Amino acid sequence: MSFIATPQSMHFAEALRLQSGASIRDYTLAYETYGELNAARDNAVLVCHALNASHHVAGMYEGQPKSEGWWDNMIGPGKPLDTNRFFVIGINNLGSCFGSTGPMHKHPDTGEVYGADFPVVTVEDWVNAQALLLDRLGVAQLAAVMGGSLGGMQALSWTLQYPERVRHAVVVASAPNLTAENIAFNEVARRAIVTDPDFHGGHFYRHGVIPQRGLRIARMIGHITYLSDDVMNEKFGRQLREGMDLKYSTQDIEFQIESYLRYQGDKFSEYFDANTYLLITRALDYFDPARRHGGNLAQALAVARAKFLLVSFSTDWRFSPQLSREIVQALLENRRDVSYAEIDAPHGHDAFLLDDARYMGVVRSYFDSIAKELQGGQP
Amino acid sequence: MSDHATMQAIARLVPEGSRVLDLGCGDGALLDLLQRERGCSGYGIELADANVLACVRRGVNVIQLNLDEGLAMFGDNSFDVVLQIDTLQHLRNAEVMLRETARVGQSGIVAFPNFAHWPNRLSVLRGRMPVTRRLPYQWYDTPNIRVGTYKDFEVLAYKNKLRILDAFGLQDGREVRWLPNALAGTAVFRFEHD
C-alpha cells in the first residue's frame, strides 16, 4: 500500500522553440510532486521517465488499487529516494500520451488533431520544457535529477544544458547515445506501426481507428530487448501453453513465451499512442551530446558541474554496461565526481525497475549523502 | 591492514592535495582519510558489491570494475598517485597491473603482505604454509593468489624499469627500515616510471 498521489497539470501559453527549429505553444505538461519543498528550496529531485512511463512516478491514485507509479519501489516515504526528505517531481514529456500535450491533441492554430504533424521533440527539448515547469514551481536548483534508460539521457542532458541548476545526476541503465543495433530495434518497431493499414500516415484519429497491430508488434520487439536470454529461459523456457503435445500449427499460440508477448502487446496497444511511440523512439535515436563535438564525449561533458552516480546491469544488452562506462570515462577525463555501480543482475534492461538489494542500497546511500550535504554536513 | 596506524603510515606517503586513484579501495576508508586529512581527491576502484556500497555511503567516489580487465578507462599520468594497497596479491595479472599503475600515475604506492616475514619462514621450515594475523587463510582457501616477498618485488620493479623512490616494511603500524624482508609483515614501495 503506497501513498496517494495527485496528478496536476500546468499550461504554457508561450511558444517553446524546439531543437528542430519548429515551436510549440499553448501546451500542457502533466506532473506530480511528492514530499515538501523545504524553505531553502534546495531539496527538489526531478525524476525523468523513459519510453512508456509518465509523470506518475510513485504513489497510487485515490480509490484505484494497483495504480502504483512506475518507480514506486524506488521513491516514496522511507524508500531509497525518500519523499520525507526530498521534494520529488515527475513530469510527463511533450509528445507523450499520459496528459501532456501530444499528437492526440489539437493544434492551437488549426483546431485539428496534431497526429503526424506533432513536431519532432528531442531529449534537449524535453529538458527545456521541464526547466520551465521547475521555474514555475520555484525550483532554481535541483538537489538531483534522476532517470533510467531514456530518463537517464534526460538526466545527463540536464547537466549539460543547465549545469548550474543540477547538483547531482543519477543516471541508471542509460547511454551517451544509441548503438546502431539499438536504433535498428527502434526502426523495426516504427515500421510495424507505420505499415499497419490503420495508421493512415499518422492521422488515424480522423478515421476512428488505432493501429493496434503495429503497436502490439512494436511492444513485443521492445519487450524482448528489455529482458535477458537467461531470465526468459528461466521464466518461460520451452514450456508449452496447453498440455504436453505439439499442435502442429503455425499460427496458434503454443509456447508460453508467445502467449506472454502477445499479452504484453495487447495490453500496450490499448493505452499507448502510436505517434507517441514514433516520437519517443526518435528522441532516443537522436540523443548524442557528443555529436556537436566531433564524437568526443569528454569534450561534450566538459560543461557539466554536477556530481554523478551511474548504475548499469550486467545482463542489460539494450543499454549495456559498456555504454555507461563511456559516460564514466568521459566524466573521469573531466575530473568530475562520479561513482559507478555495475550490478550483476540477471534481468536485462528491466532490472532498473526491479528490486535488487545492491542497486537499491547504492541509490539509497547516494541520496543519504545528498541529504547530509543539504544539512551542511560532510557529503 | 585496515588498522588505523597502518593506514596513517600509507597516508603519509601521499602528498597533500594529490589526485589519487586507489586500486582495490575496499570500503573507501583510506580515500576518506586522504580526502579529510590531506585534501586529496580521486576515485577508488572496487569489484565487491559490499565495498562499492560502503564507499558510496562514505561519499567516496568509487568505480565498480574488475582490475583483471585492466585500466583502459584511465589516461596516462592522469593521477598524481595510484595506490595498490593489499590488492596486488589478489590479481591474476599482477605484473600487467603494476605496469598500468605506473602508466596511469605520476607515482605509485604498492603495499602487500611480505611472505618472507620471519614467522612465515618459520612456518614453511616446519613444513606448513603460514596462517597468521596478516595471512589468516589456509592454503586451500586463500584469496592471495600471488605470494611474494619484499625482495621479489624489488626484482619485479627492476624488470619493469620502475624507479623506487622509497621502500620499507610495516609491522604493527610502524615503519621497518632494517631488514624489512625478514622483520615486516607488509612490504611498501613508492615508485615512479621512467
Write structural notes for this entry:
The complex is a heterodimer of chains A (379) and B (194). Chain A has 10 helices and 12 strands. Chain A has helices at 123-137, 150-161, 180-194, 212-226, 229-235, 256-271, 274-286, 297-300, 321-333, 357-374; strands spanning 8-12, 16-17, 23-24, 27-34, 44-48, 75-76, 81-82, 87-91, 144-148, 168-172, 307-313, 338-343. Chain B starts with a helix and ends with a strand. Chain B has an 8-stranded mixed β-sheet, sandwiched between helices. Helices cover 31% and strands 26% of the residues of chain B. The mean pLDDT of chain B is 95. The interface between A and B is medium-sized, with 25 and 21 residues.
Brief summary:
By secondary structure, chain A is α/β, with parallel strands linked by helices. Helix content of chain A is 34%, strand content 14%.
Strand coverage percent of chain B? 25-35%
Poorly predicted runs of chain B are: none
Overall shape of chain B: it is globular
How big is the Rg of chain B? 16 Å
Distance between the termini of chain B: 30 Å
Count the beta strands of chain A. Answer: 12
Largest sheet of chain A: 8 strands, mixed
SS summary, helix count of chain A: 10
From N to C, what is the helix and strand string of chain B?
A: HEHEHEEHEHHEEHE
Features:
heterodimer, A: 379 residues, alpha/beta, 8-stranded mixed β-sheet, two-stranded antiparallel sheet, B: 194 residues, 7 helices, 8 strands, globular
Layout of SSEs?
The complex is a heterodimer of chains A (379) and B (194).
Chain A: E1 8-12, E2 16-17, E3 23-24, E4 27-34, E5 44-48, E6 75-76, E7 81-82, E8 87-91, H1 123-137, E9 144-148, H2 150-161, E10 168-172, H3 180-194, H4 212-226, H5 229-235, H6 256-271, H7 274-286, H8 297-300, E11 307-313, H9 321-333, E12 338-343, H10 357-374
Parallel strand pairs in A: 5-8, 5-9, 6-7, 9-10, 10-11, 11-12
Antiparallel strand pairs in A: 1-4, 2-3, 4-8
Helix pairs in contact in A: 1-2, 3-4, 3-7, 4-6
Chain B: H1 4-11, E1 19-23, H2 29-38, E2 41-46, H3 49-58, E3 62-64, E4 79-85, H4 94-104, E5 105-113, H5 118-125, H6 150-159, E6 162-171, E7 174-176, H7 180-183, E8 186-193
